[in-house]
Amino acid sequence: MEQKDRKRPQEFILKTTGLTKIYSGRKVVQNVTMHVKKGDIYGFIGKNGAGKTTFMRMVAGLARPDAGEIELFGSTDLERQRVRIGTLIEQPGLYRGMTAAENLETVRRAYGITDRNAVRDMLAFIGLEDAGNKKTADFSMGMKQRLGIAMALLRNPDFLILDEPINGLDPQGIRQIRNLLQKLNQERAITMLIASHILGELSKIATVYGMICGGELVEELDAQDLAAKCRRCQRIVVDHTEQAVHLLEEELKIKDYDVPERHVIRIYEQLENFAQINQRLALAGVGVKESYLAGQDLESYFMDLLENEQEVSSW
Predict the structure, then answer these.
(1) 148 phi and psi, to 5 degrees?
(2) Handedness of CA 217, 218, 224, 226 (dihedral sign)
(3) Is pTM, for the whole model, over 0.85?
(4) Taking CA 59 as the corner, what is the angle to CA 297 and CA 177, rounded to the nearest 5 degrees?
């Protein structure tokens, strides 16, 4: 008898459970449970000092957790699995008196990589093959970031951890790094965890978001869920939901709406008829308690989320 096909379990590249780090009696990272799936570009969002870098340092083995557990590629044998990750945390560790090729050659030897063409191939891949004898001390910020990413890529990792990779770059540098990251994800199937506070740029490439505030991961959602939450709409709160929905469909011919919770309706079409919709509901005897246009970009959504978290923590 044939067995029925079963849904394959989700493959996590990184999974943390209750991860905590304490410095000087203060919990810098508090009970963080994160899930990074294979193929994700995970956008890690938080203000400066929120705990992003400390969290990444623990995953990379640069800091020891005070509590919690880390799994990499489904294993808790972290020493063995960390050879499969590449990291760029804080600033690239470059020898300023060396060229790009010399910096990469140093890393190649340290890692025991036997392929002598690895440096040449990597320089071509990141677009620094023409840097020649130029010392990294004279590199632009964008060139330094690309070289730092190249150093993280030299062991051909399956998982890349990047801390503010576009911070301080000009628009051209930002575009170059963005294109490089998309290429790595799409062509080399590299999963990424990227911390950034430049949310407009992060939103162009991220497939999943984790939002951290005061060391706590306050929300984790994918790009589709975020887009739905941020979608422009008329949000109304009514006393009789069924009656309101019937009127919207039958009389106003509105089909693009949803009811996310009791008494709340979000309308995604005919936004120009905001006042008329309110008026028609009222004439039909539906009590409209609230009605306003809603919808945000990623930055506004994140700031509102942080404000709500700060209000709750102050109670």
Answers:
(1) -60, -40
(2) negative
(3) no
(4) 45
Asked if 209 and 45 touch (Cβ cutoff 8 Å), the reply is yes
Alpha-carbon separation of residue 31 from 60, 67, 165 (angstroms): 18, 8, 26
Using left for φ > 0, alpha for ψ between -120 and 50, and beta otherwise, residue 117 falls in: alpha
Kindly state the DSSP code that residue 135 receives in the 8-state scheme. Answer: B
> pLDDT digit string (tens) for 141-197?
888 989 999 999 999 999 999 999 988 788 888 888 899 999 999 999 999 999 987
- Three-state SS at 113: coil
- 205-235: pLDDT as tens digits: 999 999 999 999 999 999 888 887 778 889 9
Specify the long-range contacts of residues 258-265, CB closer than 8 Å, at least 24 apart. Answer: 263/237, 263/238, 263/239, 263/289, 264/235, 264/236, 264/237, 265/235, 265/236, 265/237, 265/238, 265/241
**Cα–Cα distance between 259 and 245 in angstroms, integer?**
9
Backbone angles phi, psi at 80, to 5 degrees: -75, -40
Return the closest-CA partner of residue 152 out of 99, 111, 97, 96. 111
Q: Which amino acid is at 310?
A: Q
Residues 158, 138: Cα–Cα separation, whole Å: 31
